[in-house]
Design a protein that fits this description.
230 residues; alpha+beta; four-stranded mixed sheet; 6 helices; 21% strand; elongated
Length: 230
């Protein structure tokens, strides 16, 4: 279940206009909303990595890890590619982090640095084989060694799509009307709706140059983050 972009924008405008503190245009909102979503998405990965390295009481550890896994799973994607010759092949344009790459559904490729390849090839014991293939990334491409045929199943975490509150301007009017057909909702977990609104208000306070909004929103964001991690 996604966070509805129209609900968030209307809520932000309601809070801003309630105190006559200014107006956030659709373009400003879209840019801020996309940035806020990206920050929250990255916090999923950072928090998961941190928790994975930290010993905690079993119940608390399991609950927080499973919740983060649920949030991250929204962005997990799988691509199957049929090879018909030597690599490289292009990386997905929405790639954030590669998870696993499996050849013919059997052999998982090991990730290496390109600089390691020469050393690996110096010994028959470490040289890549069809059974023990490797890969490395170079620019926007991925190189697989030594495989050139078969199928590759690539699992990865994608970056969230930019948020869009699309609109039309009714004939003869001077206001924006929500257009769901061209809009893009937030992709992050629905539990983040309150934090999304607070963080957008935080940025909105900067845009409309109202320090009181910045201070109030910053305090609420900090409180929200503490509650989530307690």
């Amino acid at each position: 279940m996604a966070i509805n972009v129209n609900t968030v924008y209307r809520t932000v405008l309601l809070i801003l206009n309630k105190e006559q503190r200014g107006y956030l245009t659709p373009d400003e909102f879209n840019k801020i909303a996309s940035q806020v979503q990206l920050e929250i998405f990255r916090s999923y990965i950072d928090d998961y990595n941190q928790l994975s390295r930290t010993q905690q009481p079993e119940a608390t550890y399991a609950d927080r890890i499973s919740l983060l896994q649920e949030k991250i799973s929204i962005f997990e994607k799988t691509i199957t590619t049929t090879l018909s010759g030597p690599s490289p092949i292009s990386l997905p344009p929405d790639l954030y982090k590669i998870g696993s790459i499996v050849h013919n559904g059997v052999n998982e490729l090991q990730k290496i640095q390109k600089s390691e390849l020469y050393t690996l090839n110096q010994s028959p014991l470490t040289a890549p084989t069809i059974k023990y293939p490797v890969y490395y990334t170079e620019g926007n491409t991925c190189v697989f060694i030594p495989i050139t045929t078969g199928t590759l199943t690539r699992n990865y975490i994608k970056v969230p799509a930019d948020v869009v509150w699309n609109f039309t301007i009714p004939s003869g009017q001077n206001y924006y009307e929500y257009d769901p057909s061209g809009s893009i909702d937030f992709e992050i977990h629905v539990s983040e709706q309150t934090e999304v609104i607070l963080k957008i208000l935080l940025y909105a306070g900067v845009v409309i140059e109202d320090p009181s909004i910045v201070q109030a929103a910053a305090a609420q964001v900090q409180k929200q983050e503490i509650n989530q991690k307690s």
